[in-house]
Design goal:
The complex is a heterodimer of chains A (460) and B (321). By secondary structure, chain A is α+β, with helices and mostly antiparallel strands. Chain A is built from nine helices and 25 strands. In chain A, the strands form five sheets. A seven-stranded antiparallel beta sheet of chain A has the order 16-17-20-24-23-22-21, with helices on both faces. In chain A, strands 8-9-10-13-12-11 form a six-stranded antiparallel beta barrel. Chain A has a six-stranded antiparallel β-barrel with strand order 2-3-4-7-6-5. The chains are: A alpha+beta (460), B alpha+beta (321).
Chain lengths: 460, 321
């Protein structure tokens, strides 16, 4: 996505998390606040005294949208103190859309938290969750007072939108008041498992769940995330998923237990689909010296390479690392995202290490790599098994295979699995490969693990 | 008949603390300066005992009557209070907190023993130390995966050697304090042998863990270290004083077992805290593998078995809530 040698894990931030810690960072975040000059804005170049002219379209859109915007707060049940803030927008007299991650704290701990909305006119009231969609990070909520106006959706297909079309994102950034941000539509994000619109505009924390509209005021997307390592690189959930949720969700609020059960169901369904697609897309061979190993063919993997060869003093074994990481994780809770995948290969060859020294060197490289940190709240302790086995369905090199797994306490049949193989056929060359699967069923992991092992071969 | 009578103050463990040469046939023992043997023990009366030797050589001990306090001129032999008693040269009698032994010049001592301490076998010791250093140097070299630096690598061996020297020195000091002789070469020999043994043991155990892919062996190497340490400590203690070997062995076994139990508990807790379980690392060249694996079925069977453990973990965590 960008040309520099970036960190391997994309640093997304979901834009709602306006906690105290993030308020402290407001100084650095506000650096992004200048709206980009728009085509409409450039029409105002006749008045050079105003450096950043306000687009009249934005003025008009915000005027009509103002009454349809909400701020959605998660508050502590006992003291009423806000813990997280997000935005939302009305899609019917008493129905509003927002992000799942704006209401997730309440959904996971309904006894600890409650939800409240605020309008631009400072009306407030209770919020109840009707339904949600964790795969697309959306939630449909019901508010306790009917409002006169609501948004309508842009019903065009995404293909009919053109790159460069002006979009306007709205919400309450950093809890400093409702705002409108101009930006441009830049198509769907490449290399993302979950369809996301690439919106070039300043979506800030607190704007999550707010609408992004066309110049007609119709909703095309919902603000969801921004890249901290980019400038104005933000993401929207396409409106079609919001329309689907609106059509599907019940109109009477389900009980908290039913919502929690629905969460488990959606996580299982989402992960099953993810791994079925991963398996269906299949693996492709990649070359590492004398070895051939598997990478995923899926378009939502980004691969980066690095080597230690340039280090001084000159390393006594050269390592070439390939790290393929998927953009397929979904937000579940502040401390849990699921669906992240890694495939990494380290091809190591000795420069002047003898066989013993080389083995010791390889041992320093074969630490396992989990897709995410272990958290006592979510995971059971990890367990491993290892054995010398033969890759390539009996025709590949002998490998030391290590299988480590941990389960999810709350989601039956889901596991984090990390598989490492270390080739054991040469004294001065080795390939250390890892496949790391998050929130996968055991059967799918066994199938993928077997494929991964089978694909590891020698060059003819 | 003026014979020489020896009065010996002995410690609780039977060693002579002071020895007084007195002219016979009669003498007085007490705290006062009238006494022939002055005993500085507050629980002893100023005039406590009178000792007389008859012509046939028998020694009679009598308490001096009319004394005040608990002493009251009496004494104890083997825990039994007496006021007069005939004693021989091996009788230990107790007045106040002090133990005494009275012997005359006719008391028979055994013939000179051969020198018990063999001369240190310097050549064997030197060979042992050189072999130990060479093996450790070799291991450091085989594990050197970055640019070799002589001082750093030799330093690693030096630190090990220094540790062994310090350990032997401490035992020699203890030996000097409690047994009167440092016997440094002997302690150095024990320490170096134990270290060499542990080096070879851990090398073999690591090779076994690698060739069998056994995390269980790899994770329990320290248990062997504790056992070797226990054996070394026992040998050190025995060379200080060879008494009560069973008691020493018992205490050491208890300590070693406690240490191993603490280690196992630590491992289990680490596992529970989400730290990665032990895995056997690939520290040897592929030639060290015992068997060539031909199929992955065995591996995936173990993977299946692991699932049952994980399910049990999940059930346990659900029950814990």
């Amino acid at each position: 996505m960008i040309g520099c040698n970036m960190a391997l894990a994309p640093r997304f931030v979901l834009v709602f998390l306006l906690t105290v810690a993030m308020l402290c960072r407001a100084g650095s975040v506000s650096a992004q606040d200048d709206p980009p000059t728009s085509p409409q804005g450039s029409a105002a170049h006749a008045e050079p005294a105003r450096p950043a002219p306000v687009s009249s379209t934005a003025e008009r859109i915000f005027e009509t949208a103002r009454g349809k915007l909400l701020q959605i707060r998660t508050e502590l049940g006992a003291s009423g103190r806000q813990t997280t803030l997000g935005s939302g927008f009305l899609v019917d007299a008493d129905l509003a859309l927002t992000n799942y991650h704006v209401v997730s704290q309440y959904l996971l701990e309904p006894d600890l938290y409650r939800l409240e909305y605020f309008t631009a006119a400072n009306d407030r009231g209770a919020v109840q969750v009707l339904g949600f969609d964790i795969a697309d990070d959306l939630a449909l909520v019901k508010i306790d007072h009917r409002q006169p106006e609501h948004f309508s959706f842009d019903t065009r297909k995404l293909e009919d939108l053109v790159k460069g079309e002006q979009l306007y994102a709205m919400g309450n950034p950093l809890d400093i008041g409702f705002a409108i941000v101009e930006g441009t539509y830049n198509g769907l994000v490449e290399r993302s498992y979950t369809p996301r619109i690439h919106f070039s505009g300043a979506v800030n924390q607190g704007m999550s769940g707010g609408p992004a509209v066309t110049s007609n005021g119709d909703v095309v997307g919902i603000n969801v995330a921004t890249r901290l390592d980019g400038e104005l690189v933000s993401f929207l959930v396409p409106a079609q998923y919001a329309m689907a949720l609106l059509a599907r969700a019940p109109r009477d609020p389900p009980k908290p237990d039913a919502l929690r059960a629905e969460l488990g169901r959606q996580i299982a369904a989402r992960e099953t689909e993810l791994y079925a697609r991963l398996e269906a897309v299949g693996l492709q061979a990649a070359n590492f010296g004398p070895y051939i190993a598997a990478e995923s063919k899926a378009s939502w993997f980004t691969c980066w390479g690095n080597t230690n060869a340039e280090q001084v003093p000159k390393p006594r074994a050269i390592v070439e690392n390939t790290n393929c990481s998927s953009d397929s994780d979904a937000f579940i809770a502040n401390d849990l995202r699921i669906g992240h995948l890694y495939v990494t290969h380290s091809y190591i060859r000795s420069v002047d290490l003898n066989a013993f020294q080389f083995a010791a060197y390889v041992a320093t490289q074969n630490g396992l790599q989990w897709p995410a940190r272990w958290r006592e709240k979510w995971h059971t302790p990890p367990r491993c098994t290892q054995d010398l086995t033969r890759a390539g369905a009996g025709k590949g090199p002998p490998v030391e295979a290590i299988w480590c797994a941990r389960t999810y306490k709350d989601f039956p049949d889901l596991y984090d699995i990390a598989i490492t193989t270390i080739t054991q056929d040469r004294n001065a060359e080795a390939l250390v490969s890892r496949l790391s699967l998050q929130a996968v069923t055991y059967e799918a992991a066994q199938k993928l693990g077997a494929q991964f092992l089978e694909a590891l071969k020698w060059h003819e | 008949m003026a014979r020489v009578i020896w009065v010996e103050v002995v410690s609780r463990s039977g060693q002579v603390v002071t020895r007084h040469r007195c002219a016979g046939p009669a003498l007085r023992i007490g705290r006062s300066y009238r006494s022939d043997v002055i005993v500085d023990d507050p629980a002893v009366a100023p005039d406590h005992l009178r000792v007389t030797q008859s012509d046939d050589g028998a020694i009679l001990v009598e308490g001096v009557p009319g004394q005040t306090g608990s002493a009251d001129g009496s004494f104890a032999i083997g825990g039994e209070r007496r006021e007069r008693s005939l004693i021989d040269g091996d009788t230990v009698l107790r007045i106040g907190h002090t133990a005494l032994r009275i012997r005359d010049e006719t008391y028979a001592v055994p013939a000179a023993a051969a020198i018990a301490e063999p001369k240190p076998r310097w050549i064997e010791l030197a060979v042992l130390i050189v072999v130990t250093l060479l093996i450790n140097g070799l291991l450091v070299w085989l594990n050197e995966t970055s640019e070799p630096k002589f001082l750093r690598d030799a330093g690693a061996v030096g630190v090990l050697a220094g540790g062994v020297l310090l350990w032997s020195g401490l035992w020699a000091l203890i030996s000097r304090i409690f047994a009167g002789a440092a016997r440094f070469p002997r302690h150095l020999g024990i320490a170096a042998s134990a270290f060499l043994f542990y080096t070879i043991y851990s090398l073999l155990a690591e090779a076994a863990a690698f060739s069998l892919s056994s995390a269980a062996i790899a994770g329990n190497l320290e248990a062997g270290l504790l056992v070797v340490l226990g054996i070394a400590c026992f040998l050190h203690l025995q060379s200080i004083a060879p008494s009560r070997p069973r008691l020493k062995a018992g205490v050491i076994v208890l300590l070693v077992v406690t240490g191993i139990a603490v280690q196992i508990t630590g491992h289990l807790e680490q596992l529970k805290n989400g730290q990665q379980p032990n895995i056997a690392r690939t520290t040897f060249p592929p030639a060290f593998r015992l068997a060539r694996a031909e199929s992955e079925d065995q591996f995936f069977a173990a993977v299946d078995a692991l699932r049952r453990q994980l399910e049990a973990d999940r059930t346990a965590s659900a029950a814990g809530r």
